[in-house]
Design goal:
By secondary structure, the chain is mostly helical. Helices cover 81% and strands 0% of the residues.
Length: 134
Amino acid sequence: MKEVTFFRKARLDLRYSQEEIADRMGISRTAYVKLENGITRVISDSVLRFSSATGIPLRQIIDACYPEGDGSRLREEADTEARIKALRDEYEDRLERKSSEIEGLKAVVSAQQRTIDAQQGMLDMYARQSGKND
């Protein structure tokens, strides 16, 4: 089975133990060993968890595990997952930029409020002085 070779090779290349990969995937070591040895079938959830645990792109795992034609549903899921991740990253970048803009605007408003307060204080002082002169 291609996935057996891929999972084991990827794990060893990354210098992870079976226990480390299992922990990172959120499954037992026994479940991971069965996956690595081809005892349990590779399903989309396992592929997603392995990708997340190792940082290996989902599409790369699917292409390594399934010959052309097989795994088309998983390939579609991988493509969708990649698009979702790209959109999420773009959203987080925009959110960070907007948050920075808001902080800058808050600083401007605060400075303007201090200027208004100072000018109001001067007007009050002039009003008191002109009232004394009458």
